[in-house]
Amino acid sequence: MTKLESTKYSVLDLASVTQGHTPADSFRNSLDLAKKVEEFGYTRYWFAEHHNMANVASSATAILIGHIAGGTKTMRVGSGGIMLPNHAPLIVAEQFGTLASLYPGRIDLGLGRAPGTDQLTAHAIRGENFKAVHNFPRDIQRLQQFFSAENSHSNVRAIPGEGLEIPIWVLGSSTDSAMVAAELGLPYAFASHFAPTYFMDAIRLYRENFKPSASLDKPYVLSCVNVVAADTDEEAERLATSVKQFFMGVVTGRRQLLPPPVDNMEDIWNMHEEAAVNQMLAYSFIGGPAKIKKQMEAFLDKTGVDEVMATSHIYDHQARVHSYKLFSEIFK
């Protein structure tokens, strides 16, 4: 079996809102996509928690996870991730305990330490707790305690949640998160789809410092990447102008709903914006099946990751479904 054939492939969905459409449309498209990618052999389908972004509708992450899990049968569904400083660990334990009770053996809990938004919105979310010191490793351990059967003797219990096997993942975009995942012996998911700078250093540190735990005996690395696949390289490049405009909004602060593709980005961005966007999109796979397969083989040889999670900001829903279909086929 080749490295490509032994690598799991999954989906990250931000429930992107496209121009001319609403979040309700995004949620319908997410469910349709989830049903299709389950047929295509994808391992898991994650949502990312973001707030105060007109073009991203995945703010109520746990609710969307339930929506997708209820409409699919076998695929794992989870968070990539829940931003732990925004929530009391007990509430997260109860929410995911509820999900795992409804959909046993199918729920993942990925955890991040960022707010998933701007400082003003973070203040609105956290209220009086805004200035509280958040200890990410300690909060993960508190979550593990709430999920443990031993916690049944505690004065504070997560019902439902207690005694359930809910896999916890550490998410990150820096070397700090790598050390947390290694110390706790948890699987590590890296946000290489928008923060490529520390990716290679982070996964090296994670592997070198990994301590086996009750949940994981050896390091497990998931890398999130951008994927825009189409029947031809030219069509894929055209479709990818949507994600380039999306990230241009991130770079410039002028966010907009996900726009349709254009024939020429040169009419839209300047060279500084182009350089910044291309830096963020360093781990992107854009092209027809042959090109993407060759790029993915090289990527797996270089990184040795165990799983690849594709996120695809494609304006047209059917083109997005087709992209995920083509991407799945290169692993078979």
UniProtKB/TrEMBL annotation:
GO terms for cellular component: cytosol. InterPro entries: Bact_Lucif_Oxidored, CmoO-like, Luciferase-like_dom, Luciferase-like_sf. It comes from Chitinophaga oryziterrae. GO terms for molecular function: oxidoreductase activity, acting on paired donors, with incorporation or reduction of molecular oxygen. It comes from the Bacteria. This is Luciferase-like monooxygenase. Residues 13-306 form the Luciferase-like domain. PANTHER family: LUCIFERASE-LIKE MONOOXYGENASE. To bacterial alkanal monooxygenase alpha and beta chains. Keywords: Oxidoreductase. Pfam families: Bac_luciferase.
